Amino acid sequence: MTDVEGLCDPRFAAVRAALAASLGKDDVGASVAVRLDGEPVVDLWGGYTDADRSVGWGRDTLAGVNSTTKNMTALCALVLADRGRLDLSAPVAAYWPEFAAAGKERLLVRHVLSHTAGLPDLSGMTAVEDLYDWRGVTAGLAAQAPEWEPGTAAGYHALTFGFLVGEIVRRITGRSLGEFFAEEVAGPLGADFHIGLSAADDGRVAPLIPPPSLTDAYASTAPAGPDGTRREYTGAAIRVRDANSAAWRRAQIPAVNGFGNARSVALVQSVLANRGSAGGVRLLSPRGCEPAWQEVFRGEDRVLRTPMSWSAGFGRFGNTFGWGGWGGSLVVSDPDARMTVAYVMNRMIDRERQEDSRGMEMVMAAYSGLR
Predict the structure, then answer these.
(1) Which of 67, 264, 277, 329 is flagged as catalytic?
(2) Whole-Å CA distances, 296 to 28, 79, 153, 330
(3) Span 184-220, pLDDT tens digits
(4) In whole angstroms, how large is the CA radius of gyration of the chain?
(5) CB 43 within 8 A of CB 279
(6) Which tens digits make up the pLDDT trace of 284-340?
(7) What's the predicted TM-score (pTM) here?
(8) Catalytic annotation present for 67
(9) Which of 346, 258, 329 shows the shortest CA–CA distance to 53?
(10) Phi, psi of 331, deg, nearest 5
């Protein structure tokens, strides 16, 4: 068992115990947070920011959360929809005219958010550096034909999700996804989460640590389903060293390059679990939250190769919704319980070699506090 720091309501002592146990086993450094009715009941952290265990993980340490970023990007779309500036049932081309090319004139915003747009891969991407060219990537997606009729099948849009949603947001607001998130979501809430990290914050980042026995060349070549299977993937592999680079931090890759900690992830996502507000700040109407948990697609996901239920921007799991990131970060929201649980770490686990139950152990420990 390892000591942890921070806030923990006595009802949620099991969460503290779960984090301490994880730090004593698989984690190097990590944080976990729980918000109930939009208010913090758990805000804990512990361990170290580096593989040598020489620098302690502090209250304001940040880490790259990889695809947990998708939850933040989806929320931006729901905020615009709630304000009447984005119609989830409208064609993407209504906001992004060039997108109508190659048979996509009827492809809806809802299809993009639910991973049913048929654009799961970036055609022609051969290097990670290609991801840093926003206009090049989005122009390519606008010209690309879908792999299937939009809305008829799902396939996890691991990288394209952020560019597609982000370009819709940019066309509506004139701001990048990262700018919109900072000004309209993180700013009002006081959330320390960033999509596009400034150099001033570099010193607070706990670099991702590759899984045991692997190096920083460890790569995410394609998403894997629960059984570890992957579909064939020919694009550029993103390595741990790429995700730890300054270029990655500065870029706008809104599907995967968010930086935060459990406190900030839970704070932002608790808005949806708590009917539109958190910490006394209202971002959406209660009705504006509902697309986060209303099912858009149910069936076999062609990329993950597993049965999935997708809402407008989130994975659905029973009465809960949310998503996790490569290596282990996770956020889960329960609108019935009005609870959100987030877990952010720096030591990654390769699910093809080892089961990774860390995040779900935090979630289940949080539920024990509701009894």
Answers:
(1) 67
(2) 38, 18, 11, 22
(3) 999 999 999 999 999 999 999 999 999 999 999 999 8
(4) 19
(5) no
(6) 999 999 999 999 999 999 999 999 999 999 999 999 999 999 999 999 999 999 999
(7) 0.96
(8) yes
(9) 346
(10) -140, 135
